[in-house]
Every structure is written in structure tokens, then in C-alpha cells.
Structures
1.
Amino acid sequence: MGADIGVTGLAVMGANLARNLARNGFTVALHNRSVARTDSLLNSYGHEGNFVRTETLAELVESLERPRKVLIMVKAGGPVDAVIDELTPLLEEGDIIIDAGNSFYEETRRREEALREKGLHFVGVGVSGGEEGALNGPSIMPGGSRESYDSLGPMLEKISAKYHGEACCAWVGTDGAGHYVKMVHNGIEYADMQVIGEAYDLMRSLAGLEPATQAGVFREWNTTDLASYLIEITAEVLEQEDELTGRPLVDVIVDSAGQKGTGRWTAISGLEVGSPVTAIAESVFARSISSQRDLRAETSRVFSAGINEAITASELYGEDDAQQDFVEDVRKALYASKLVAYAQGLDMLVAAGEEYGWDLDLKSIASLWRAGCIIRADLLDTIMKAYDVPAAQRPKNLLLAEEFTEALNECLPAWRRVVAAAATYGVPAPVFSSSLAYYDSLRRDRLPASLTQGLRDYFGAHTYQRVDKPGTFHTRWSQDRSEAEV
Ligand SMILES: NC(=O)c1ccc[n+]([C@@H]2O[C@H](COP(=O)([O-])OP(=O)(O)OC[C@H]3O[C@@H](n4cnc5c(N)ncnc54)[C@H](OP(=O)(O)O)[C@@H]3O)[C@@H](O)[C@H]2O)c1
């Protein structure tokens, strides 16, 4: 009997996925460009299951059962192409190459097409959950052909995270769909973290709540409809004391957020497919501004009248229990903004599905994110239920699902108060504010885009349509200003 699957690329992610597969009873053939990594894995964890040691890709391929399944977990970009080029001549029709790294979906589409012409299946798989997820059960978003999922799917489902016994793994769509869904997951993750940051900043700047006290607030919030992994770990980070100085750790960490690019890809793709993912884009921009530390230092001196340090919640709310009220308002603003981020991300999936020919099932996708991944949250179960209705009744936008229209109505006054306070006292809250603007734009029957169209027609004869009759029109602005049908 040959091995069930081969894994090439045994750095932290590949090694952990290989161990996860072996622990679940699969025989796993191992390969890494430098053999030392293979041996290190075998020395430390060889006892965990059935592994086959190989030194070359040819040996790896030879060791596999047909149809062969080779999972690539190398550095994204050129290395993936390099491995595919070496692997392809060694494989036969019907074999499956799996790329479970963080590849850009357009590259996955290109690779899938090229390999399909050679009779091979190429499956781009989105994997979320970091090192720990890879080892103990990640959220898995496979793309590629439906046919390849028939033989690969059961293995991936077995090693995936489980939400109340249900696998967080399902085929999402052809070619690059898996990597696309993972990318949008990461975009939502950016927004999720940004709104948490905004809530923290507002509570500290306007209500004077120190990090350790806020840890308790976030812990409390984790028992509400905000319950999620990110809220849970926010409490942990906020209560951490710096060993060196005794100050809150969050005060000694440089306030410049890093990024590996998936949030940026999501925002760019949102622009390309014409989907307004404002919460995600603002979150990416917020990280960019955070990185402009020298500029911020200089600007904070020039515009020193920034946050009024003397402002307290009682000045904002003018009541005895003002602080508590403000905290509750911030919680509601956070929830509403988070809902917008998810609504926009899911809308973007629909737009991308139309663009790339994927029939994406939002209910199934929400189900994949319920465990194993960074954005895992109780909210996803509710989102799933919102789409668990006959097609004709599915909400056009998540915010229109009954569960969420009610929640938004309940949060709205608080959301407006918080955004108003942020603007009045100069605390940046880009996602709280832009999400409210998105909500207000969506619920407006008429937008000033009519004026935009008028201006475009004026300077560029771009034409416009009328609300009262069909056709395309132009006003002769530089002549007698009469209207012509064009
Ligand atoms: N889903 C998640 O939560 C998550 C988290 C982290 C990373 N990732 C993604 O998972 C993938 C693997 O990440 P990682 O951190 O484990 O590893 P990595 O540092 O991205 O890559 C190191 C691995 O790539 C191999 N490699 C590099 N260039 C190669 C080439 N030209 N030919 C063959 N092999 C090459 C290395 O082999 P040598 O040992 O010979 O150098 C090593 O096995 C990446 O796409 C990464 O973005 C995902």
C-alpha cells in the first residue's frame, strides 16, 4: 500500500498539516527541499503516525497511491511555481496537486488552467488558523474541480476543525474560489481587529478605562452576541503586564500594525468587482496610517489640539452612571460595525462569484468560519441561519436578514452617539464611522449620485438616465441647455 498523501514543504505550516493528517490515520509521505527539515520532523514526531521519508519529489510521487495527492506548503509565489514545474512531469492524468499556502487567487486560477490542460487537478485550498489550527484542526476552504473534491474532500474534512461535530471544510467553487474565500476571510479579520481597536481607543480616550479594566469589559462582552475568539484574546492581551516596566504590555508595543497583504488584496479585489468593502479597506488604510509614525509624531505637534484629555464619559453623557452607558454604547457600535464588515465581505463574494463564474454558497462559507479560524464567532452561526432559507427568501444583503435588521435597529442610536463623540473629541474611528456611512447610504432611497451624473454629463458628456422615462440623455450644457436623447 502506498501513502495516502504527500506533503512537500515542511516548515511550520506544512509540518503541522502533515502531523494532523498522520494523527488522523493517513499515511503521509514527507518531502522538503532541504532534507534536514524532513528528518527533524521525523525525529521529533515520527511516532505520531505513519510517515514515509523521501528525499526527492520523484521518490515522493513514487510512494503515493493513485490518484496521487501532493500537498504543497512552500513559500507563496515563485516557490509554488518552481515546485509545480518539477512535480508536473512526474504525475499522471487524474493526479491532484494541492496548494494550501496563502497564494493569490489569480495565480491559482492561472495554475489551475495550465494544469487542467495537462489532465491534472490543481486545488487551491484556503487554510486558516495559523500553526495551531494546522496541527489541531484548521478551517479549510478548498477550490478546484468538483471531481477532485470527491477523493480529497473526505481527508480534508477529517483533519479540519469541527463546530459541534460539523467539519469546517467544504468545497467552495472551481479554480481560485478557495483562495478567494480565504482572502475575504482575512479581509474580514482585518476589519474585526480594527473595530476592536477602535472600541479600546474610545473607551480609553473618552472614558478613561485602563487596559486591565478593559480586559474585564471584553471578557464580559464575550458572553454577549460579540462572543468570538478575537474578543476573547483581546482580554488576554489587554491584561498582560510588561515584565520589564510593569506597565500594560499594550503601552510598550510599537503602534505600527504589520500586514502580509491579504487585506490589501481584498480591498483591491473589492474595487475591481465593484463591491464597497469600506470596512475592510478602511482597516487596511488604518494599518498604513499606523505605520507612518514619523509623520504622526510631527503632525501631533503641529495639530496639538487633538484629543481633549479632560473629556470624560460623564461630560459626554452627563449622568452618574455615564461610564457604564458609554461602554454599552461602544459595545453596540462595535457589534453594528462588525455586522457591516461581514455584510460587505459576503456581498463581495457574491460579486466575485458573478465575475469569476463561482456559485458560492454563503451559508456553507459561513459554516466554514465557525471554528478553527481567526474570525470564529457565534455570530457566524446566526449568519448561517440567515442564509438557511429557500433561495427566493435569501436576504440581498446580510443586514436585511431579520435577525440583523432588529439588532441594527437596537444598536443604531448608540452607534450614532459613539461616532458623534469620536468626531467631536477627535478620536479616530474610521471603521465605526465609515460603516455607519455605508449603512446610511444603503438605506437612502436617493443619493447625491444624481448630481455626480449631472457633473459628469456637464464636463464629459457622459450622459445620464432619467427617473421618469427610459433612455439615455445629454444636456447641451455649452449650447442652449436643451436635453437630447442619445
Ligand atoms: N493559514 C495560515 O494561518 C498560515 C500561517 C502561516 C503561513 N501560511 C502560509 O503557508 C505557507 C507555508 O508557510 P510556512 O510559514 O510554513 O513556510 P514559509 O516560511 O512560507 O516557507 C518555507 C518553506 O518553503 C520551502 N521553499 C521555499 N522556497 C522554495 C523553493 N524555491 N522550492 C522548494 N521549496 C521552497 C522551504 O524549503 P527549505 O526548508 O528547503 O528552505 C520551506 O519548506 C505560505 O504560503 C504561508 O503564507 C499560512
Note: The pocket of NAP is lined by residues 9-14, 32-34, 37, 73-76, 79, 82-83, 101-102, 127-130 (CB under 6 Å).
2.
Amino acid sequence: MRVLVAGRSGQVANALARGAAKRDGDIICLGRPGLDITDDHTIASALDEHKPDVVINAAAYTAVDRAEGDSKAAFAVNANGPELLAKATAGRGIPLLHVSTDYVFSGSKTTAYVEDDPTAPAGIYGKSKLAGEEAVRKTNARHVIVRTAWVFDVTGSNFPKTMLRLAVQRDEVSIISDQHGNPTDAREIANALIAAAKKVHERPQDAEWGTFHFSGPASMNWADFARLIFAVSARHGGPVARVLDITTDDYPTAAKRPANSMLDSSQFHARFGYQAIALEQSLERCMPQWLESLKGGA
Ligand SMILES: NC(=O)c1ccc[n+]([C@@H]2O[C@H](COP(=O)([O-])OP(=O)(O)OC[C@H]3O[C@@H](n4cnc5c(N)ncnc54)[C@H](OP(=O)(O)O)[C@@H]3O)[C@@H](O)[C@H]2O)c1
């Protein structure tokens, strides 16, 4: 199986590049300028050169707050880009796996979101990602859209790395405790995407096209996530800070965050046979590298 991944330097793309075992086939990760998903010429060249069996779109404009003042760029990458990828893959008979987000929901539900819950994004990022989902659905029937949330990886900028950096500087951190979600290890997303790619490639007749949720198994608020990060950090001799609970109103941001980002991943597990490992196991795995990167100031 030959898989082409759009978005070389991102957390999910990196996890795909790193984690793919040889038995998964060839994983080719391409990013700008060689593959720019807003440029159909670069898409066509990449597809014609690499002739993938499956394409995964892990590229996105993910700066949620910046998107509020930069709607044009967010829609170009998150809506127009997936549409161009869907058009190019559909024209060549290639399935497209597309990564999306909890931000397509308003966050007002009190339990975990399932796939057919009504979407109602509050901000530009969520609106642009929803437009991308709709373009993929309309343009390439052979698609799997995977919504995920609260992503962290050994690489990139993410919540655990920010917490560890803050704990080096301070004894106390104030963290929001009225937003709930499922922290999700990018390596687990990579495994889930490869499981889905294999299924659509090896058994196309049984392929499960459509939209699915995939996230980590534990739901919690950001403050409790911070506490768990520090507990694991302490076991590794890393920095620790006391966590004070604050509310969303205490920490204003340009973009409104969903109060509830919890995703129900049971459909994905039932159809593709993969579910994420325990959160603490993921944190244990990532911690040595995070602590190492703290020394380098990364
Ligand atoms: N991070 C989260 O917490 C989170 C939560 C829910 C869903 N998601 C979704 O998960 C997916 C992956 O997120 P992530 O955290 O891995 O994102 P990330 O670390 O911000 O990486 C995004 C990647 O997209 C690339 N990119 C941006 N514009 C591009 C373009 N026009 N052409 C090609 N590549 C382009 C960026 O490359 P450059 O280096 O060139 O800018 C970057 O490598 C996205 O669909 C995101 O919406 C993320």
C-alpha cells in the first residue's frame, strides 16, 4: 500500500511518518512548497509522481485564534485545499482520508458528540474545517473523514509541552476547568488512519465511507489534564506545578472554544477495529522526549 500524506511538518503527519511500520507499506509525507494543498498543480504533480493507493490530508490551518482575523487564509487551506485534493483524488479513483475537528460542533451538548450530531461551529477555524468536510463529501465519494480533538505529539506545539515549559518557570499555573475533551495522542491518530487506509485499500468492497470520530479514551477538563501531565512528569523527574482551576471567562481568547469537545469513537472502533491506548500510557511514552526538548529550550 502506498500512502501519500499532505502536511509534512505537522503533529499528525510527523506521527504518520515516524510510526508507520514497514508492513504498513510506503508512507510518503509531503508539504509546502512541493505539495501545497491550495495549489492544484502541485497536487496533480504529487499524485502523478507517487501514484498513491490512498491519500491522507493531515494539512490544515490550525491557528485557531489567528484564524479570526485571517479568514481568507483559513478557508483557503481548510476548505479550498480539501476540495482540490478531493477533486484530484476522485479523478484518479483514489480514496481520500481527511482529518477534521471537534470545532465543527458548538460544544453545547453535555455528552460525547456522535457523528451525526448537528454541526454549529462558533469560530472561523471551525467554519472553515466544516466547509472542508462538506467539500470532501460532495467531491470524492470514496472518503473517510476522521474528526479528532485535543491533539498532542512528541513534536510540535501542544498543551503538554506548554505545561512543562510553564512548570520550569512557575510554581503555579491557572488552567481552564470548564472545557471538556479527550486528549489524543497523534501516534494513535496515525495508527487509526493507517487502519482505515488498509481497510479501504485491501477490502474496497467492504469499505466504510463517511465521517467518523477518533479520539483518546479519557475525557477530562484542561486543568485535570495538566495535573495528569505533571503527575507523569514527576515520575520522570521532570518539572511540576500546582494547578489552579479557572473558567473560560477568566481567560479570554479571540476564538470561542467549545465547552464540550468530547467525541464518541465507538463507530470508528466498530468499523475499522482500532481504538486509542490509555492516555497515561501515551504520556509515559512521550514524556522522555518532552523533557529532553525542555533542556534544549524547544
Ligand atoms: N492540533 C489539535 O489539537 C487538533 C485538534 C482537532 C483536530 N485537528 C486536526 O488534525 C489535523 C492535523 O493537525 P496537527 O495538529 O497535526 O496540525 P499542525 O501541527 O498545525 O500541522 C498542520 C500542517 O499543515 C501544513 N500546511 C498548512 N497549510 C498547508 C498547505 N497549503 N499545503 C500543505 N501543507 C500545509 C503545515 O505546514 P507548514 O509547516 O508548511 O505550515 C503543517 O505541517 C488537522 O486537520 C487539524 O484540523 C487538530
Note: The first helix runs from residue 11 to 19.
3.
Amino acid sequence: MQIQKNVSLKPYNTFGVDVSCNQLICVDREDEIPYLFQEKVFDTRFFILGGGSNVLFTQNYDGNIVHMRTKGIDIVKETENEVFIKVAAGELWDDFVDFCIRHAYYGIENLIGIPSLVGSSPVQNIGAYGVELKDVMHSVEGIYVGNNKPFVLNNADCEFAYRSSVFKKALKNKCLVTQVLFRLSKIKQFTLTYKALRDELPYDDADLNLQKVAQAVLKVRNSKLPDVRKIGSAGSFFKNPVIPKSRFVTLIDKYPSLIHFDTDNGEVKLAAGQLVEIAGWKGKRLNDAGVYPLQALVIVNYGNAGGKELLDLSMEIQKDVFERFEIQLEPEVNIMF
Ligand SMILES: Cc1cc2nc3c(=O)[nH]c(=O)nc-3n(C[C@H](O)[C@H](O)[C@H](O)COP(=O)(O)OP(=O)(O)OC[C@H]3O[C@@H](n4cnc5c(N)ncnc54)[C@H](O)[C@@H]3O)c2cc1C
């Protein structure tokens, strides 16, 4: 365990915002968790930080940051067709994806390249190119921070939805995720429903394999998303809005090129990035805060933008989109005050 006081969080958030926190507690082993309760860390203001890739700190954080660095990828059960793998919260998501590709376990190859830790993956229900965490997750283990009691929640308990779960609703800030159990397939199968991904792969490739699919995913991702080692961002800043069909019918009349998908409950999901682009924000830059030229959904920090500057930019965008479409864009990113 490492405890640092008044430390900069710049290396701990992919926006690269330079804010500090009162105390940063990095947990390296699960048997260190009791210390957090002994020191009453969760009785003060606290935030559990993963890879910091879905967080915008708008000012110094006046509290404790708990950062999980626990490691471990263990196969706990295997059948002829399936494998169950338990992964520690502090593992890098991509290290786990890499493990699965090397061992020919199918199911998460489309999720390669997401700069997450494993512990945050169920919180956000991460998703990309037709696959979501909910499709491969068996259960989550952790500790209720309010009473230091362990919990195991199965897939259905997690109430997964688009970029959401029970950990962002009823259990928001109430759980420390310690382990995630995945259920993956040993049978060769791919999800290639996403057109841009399909187009990257030959249609008649009898030798299609996990490596080829993962490479194609990375190629598509890199064509649209900034490399956070070079340009700060938190990926998609806004969620794709879902609107009633009646409202959509009027909109499509005015904007016939709107990308749209029917949802299961009769509503229509729009592409937030396209709305931002039509509103004229793609590629715009205000000092070091900007909108990524290759994907309007991504707000970027070109160097020294502060969290407040990035937040102000996002609010300007929300205002313009609302004025034009009467649609309130909702941030996907956790905004920290
Ligand atoms: C370039 C880029 C591309 C991206 N692409 C995608 C994408 O394709 N698909 C996608 O879904 N997302 C994407 N994201 C967003 C982001 O990577 C995901 O939301 C990711 O799950 C966040 O993980 P993190 O470890 O960085 O979590 P953080 O940002 O640190 O935290 C996210 C939330 O999880 C909570 N949390 C973290 N760890 C724990 C824990 N152990 N216990 C309890 N709560 C915890 C935090 O409190 C916070 O509420 C992208 C981001 C970037 C920067």
C-alpha cells in the first residue's frame, strides 16, 4: 500500500488535468483493504479511482482517493466450451484482453484498447463494436464501503444498461469492486455486426482469428480516438441521446442524414457525436481545450487545459446542441467538483 499526501492526480487521469487530492491511497493487495476501514477512509469524502479514463476533475479534490492496483488473472473453472476467469480490480483491462487472445478465449476481443482497469469495467458496462461487458461478465465481488461487508453480485443484479449499472445508480459510491468473474467461450465466434469493423476484415477469411479481429478493432479505434499518451481525453464525453419516436419524426424531416437506431422500447437513439458536429464544434479549439478533429464526441486537452476549462467547453457544446435540436446531451464522463 502506498499513501501520499497532497499529491498531483495528473498521472492518474487520462485528461491529464493537474489537480491534487488530500490523500492518494494505492491498494496493492486485498488484505490491505481492512486498513481503509480502520482509518475510516470511507467515513470521509472519498472517491474510488480506476485508470481515471472516465473522470474529469474540475478542481483540487478535497478528500481521499482510493486507487486499486491489485493484480491477478486466474482461471477458476473450465468446461469443454467455456472458461471462467477471475480478475483483480487493479488489472489493466488490456492486459486481460491480451491474456484472453493469447489463450484463445472468445468474447472480449472487440473491447481491446479501452483504457480501463478491470474493477471499473462493470461500473461503466464498457462497450465497443457490438459487445458490452454485460455479455461476458458472470459476477462481481467487492466490499460495501458503508459496513465493510463483502458482496457478490451476479450479472442480473448489476442492472446493466448502456454505459450504466447499479454501481452508478442505487449502489453509487457504496461499493469497492475487488474482483470480476468473466465467462468466456472456447468456441471460435466473433461479433462483427459493426460495419466499420466488418469492412476492415476480409469477408471470406476462413482463418479469421482473435489476433486479426483485435488488430482490426485497434485500427478502427485509432482512426477515431486520440492516443491518451499524446492527447488528453476521456473518450466519448457525452452519451448517445435517446428520444421519443414522435420527436425523432420531426427531427429527421429537418436533418435527413441523422444517424439513428431504434431501441427495444420504441424510442430512437441518436449519435451524440453527429449532433455536436452539426452544431459546428468538430475540431474547434479554445486555448488547450478542444473537440477532437476526427471525432466530435471526444473533448481533448491539448496540453495545459484545466478541468474547469474543459467543463466550460462541454457546457457550451451542450447549450448549442440544445438550442439546435432541443436535446440535452448527458455527460458519460464522471465530473468531479
Ligand atoms: C481514449 C479513450 C477511449 C475510450 N473508449 C471507450 C470505449 O470504447 N468504450 C467504453 O465503454 N469506454 C471507453 N472509454 C471510457 C473509459 O475508458 C471507460 O469508461 C472505463 O471503464 C473507465 O475505467 P477507469 O478504470 O479509467 O475508471 P475511472 O475513470 O477511474 O472510474 C470510472 C468509475 O468507476 C468507478 N470505479 C473505478 N474503480 C472502481 C472500483 N474498484 N470499485 C468501485 N468503483 C470503481 C469510479 O469511482 C468511477 O465512478 C474510453 C476512454 C478513453 C480515454
Note: Residues 14, 47-55, 68, 89, 114-117, 119-121, 123-124, 126-128, 175-177, 225, 228, 233-235, 334 surround flavin-adenine dinucleotide (CB under 6 Å).
4.
Amino acid sequence: MLSPINGQGRTKNKAASFARWYKGNTHTHTLASDGNAPASYVVKWYYNQGYNFIALTDHNKIINPDTVKLPGKLRKDFILIRGEEVSGGKSIHTTGLNVTGYVDPGDKTLANAAILQNHVDSVLTHSGLPILNHPNFSKGIHASNISTTSKLHMLELFNGHPGVYNWGKEGHAPVEVKWDSLLTQGHRFFAVASDDAHHYDQFYPEKANPGRGWVMVKSTVLSPDSIVAAMVRGDFYASNGIILKTVEANQNNLTVEIDLVATKEQLKSPYLTGNITTEGKSGFLIEFIGSGGKVLKKTEGTSASYAVNGSEQYIRCRVSYCRKRAENKFEYLYAWTQPVFPGQK
Ligand SMILES: [Zn+2]
Ligand SMILES: [Zn+2]
């Protein structure tokens, strides 16, 4: 059995055959901090877009989900997960997902690594899942400062806010390169995509709008505890546009299949913001990535399988769809599966 974080394998028991994918956003703001819509409006927006769960994560503020009226008239498969964006000094922000109560951001004057460690420890004290947000925001945090943090196993690979430089900036590598750096150093990190939405009235790329980044979590039950447990196991993937039908890992293979119907529908969304490049090749590409960020295998198509030889430090899969944009520009949209670790027990 390939072993993600905490040694548990991906769910393989009989109940797993009844598991389904749940779509969720782990990072959203409301009027309780610097979002521009009340919680009830934000919740309704996500509900109407077909999401199954969201966390309202205001800066150093907790909204009790019990106080927010859920739409829920037509669909029962929608929940709120209690959350907070623990917002410390040096623009280091950490989502506390499914926390039991308010998490204090701690001393904001400490060094980067100490601020982050405080966040992680405090979120864990409140029984939550810590997720390092937008590592390239503002002065950013380097992989070297993330790697010294203990008990942190999740980061935001994609964040929909226009000011976070997911694809890198001067002095900061793309977040995906930082992720591979951490994995190559032997740290077990899983990656989420989130919206970090603040603006719910006007929609254009320069606004922090919802609908740009999300996770798809495979679980038999939709509850805050079961969603977070599935994420800790690695039973999820991050997306900013691609929907997968199959993500399967066993001793011999890592297999990924795109849900073409759902992806085509998803790609019609006016909210998506992909990676804009000047060079590209239109269509789907599935890449299996290993130590050092090296591409181990790539397939142009909608399904692919990688034969594990057992010596790989880790293997993860990046699925991309490239489409032409105006002025000879290309836009890349992705799904990123979590790494598996064949070489580690
Ligand atoms: Zn933030
Ligand atoms: Zn935020």
C-alpha cells in the first residue's frame, strides 16, 4: 500500500466503493473581515454553484457555522466547515480548517518560521487542520522556512486572489516548485487550491472573486470531520478547472482519468483564471512528476497510468488543459493529485 501522511493508505475498504467526490473551498472571506458580502450571501453563492462544502475563513475571526442560515432547500449535500485565516505578521497566513474555536495569531514580530510554527501549533491545539496559505503573497515565505516547520503537511498550491503570484515572481519560485522542493527534501505535503474570495459583486480578473480554485474530496460521508480526515489521508485533489473521474494508487500503478463531460462543463465557467503563457499547446496533458519536479512520464489524452517501480521518492500527477486566448496567449488550467510515496513505509 502506498502511504500518504500518517501512514494510512488511500481508502480501499468496501465502504470506499460508495465514496463520492465532494467539491469544496477551504478559504473565503465575508464582511466579518475584508470580504464585501455577508456570510449568508457568500454561502448562497457557493451553494448555487454546486459546491458541497465551504469554510468561511475571515482574518483572525471565527464565524460559528450554526449562526449562518444554509440555503439547503433543494439539496442536502452542502455543509459549512468552521474555519479561520490565522493572519500573522510578515503576511504569513494559515488556514485553520475545522477548528474548535478562535485561534490567536500570536506574536506578529517574530521571524517567518516562528510565526508559521505558532500558527500550526495553535491550529492543532484547536483540533484543526493547518494549511499554509499563498506562500508567494507579499514578501512571501521560502521553502527553506516552510521546511523547518513541524506538523505542517498542507499548503495552498493555487489561490484565486489576483495578488498572490501562484506562478512565481522575482525572488520567489512558482508555488509548485516550492512544493516539489519540500517533497524532494522528504517532507510529506499535500496541496489545496482555494478561492481566497473577497469580492462578490463585480467579476473580473483583478478582483478576488469566488469560483477559481477548489478541492475535490473523496469521502463516504459529508461532514466536517470526514472531509478533513479524507484530506489528511490524501483522498483529494486540487483544481482550478479540471475535473477527474478516477485517481487510483496501488503498489503497481498510479492511474488518473479525466471526467471529460464534467470538465467541458466546468471549462465554460466565466470565473476561471488559469496560468496565462505566451507559448503553449492546446489540449489535455497528463504528467507524472517525481523527485526534483522531474516529469517521469507524460501522455497527451484524457487518461494515463504510471507503472510504479518502487524506487520513486514520490509520484504525483498534474493534469492540464491548454486553450488559446486572444493575442497569441495560452491559458493553462489544472488538476493536481496528491503525491504518493512508494519508497517510504
Ligand atoms: Zn491570506
Ligand atoms: Zn484570505
Note: The pocket of zinc ion (ligand 1) is lined by residues 85, 93, 133-134 (CB under 6 Å).
